[in-house]
Here is the input.
Amino acid sequence: MTATLLRTAADLHARVRTGRRAVVMTMGALHEGHATLIRTARKIAGPEGEVVVTVFVNPLQFGAGEDLDRYPRTLDADVGLAGTSGADAVFAPSVDEVYPGGEPQVRISAGPMGERLEGAARPGHFDGMLTVVAKLLHLTRPDVALYGQKDAQQLALIRRMVRDLNFGVEIVGVPTVREEDGLALSSRNRYLSPAERRTALALSQALFAGRDRHAAQEALRARAREVPASRARAEALSAIGESRAAADAHAVATTAGGPAAIRAAARLVLDEAARLDPPLTPDYLALVDPSDFTDIGDDFTGEAVLAVAARVGATRLIDNIPLTFGTFGDAS
Here is the structure.
């Protein structure tokens, strides 16, 4: 399948629409993670619908000293990958097309959620991101737009903007795609030297350590729920050696677990990676409620996000995994 390259909104609007339009927004340098988004969009749009991939490196979301100038630009390859993955068109506007009067004076504010984690590390980033997402939603006029869960805070903010400002579009999050060794796919991975890439594996390894600790805690809580409710039952179980195991499970589940233990398990991996050559330099590690990206408490139940950001050399990477609290089952 060959994707049509479009440079202006007028060209995009001139296309005949016969079904649902699904849009995948990117900054280019497409990889298998983007391909997964496009294939998912193709399934959602169906054979009668249309998949549009946007390629635009948005200057508003790059701060001073960030990698705007060196961000990879590979449009020809992007159009090819988009087409083979199921896209009908690639919309790659110029900066003048998106911002015809220069940088916009009116922008969307990300609010308090946009000042946490990534927002604290990159002031103004989310205001610029939401502004361009809003503009591209207006320019592409989709029925559904898809974004990767690797950028969890970005996805949460887009969902909040669409809900709070009554955008008539469905937002779909697509799970993170990883290399075989666990490294989350990112356009910035190409900046890493072989040694830096080995160090960068600590991001996913830290998340997996936290996930494993969480799964163990949930299993212990499930075991604790099976502790006998009566003395007679306890004595009966004691005869076959089960009461000690139940008591141990209850003690661990109630005194040595919780979010702090999950953070500690992940932090240990990051601390070890900080001593590597080249070293990992963490920006943050957080276990948060995805509705507002505030830290969760010990009594939290429901979906949470374990998120990490760090630098290796000159490259800054982010990653996260979802965890579920309170189900007494596998939360990975």
Remarks:
- The chain has a mean pLDDT of 90.
- The CA atoms of residues 218 and 328 lie 5 Å apart.
- The longest strand covers residues 302-312.
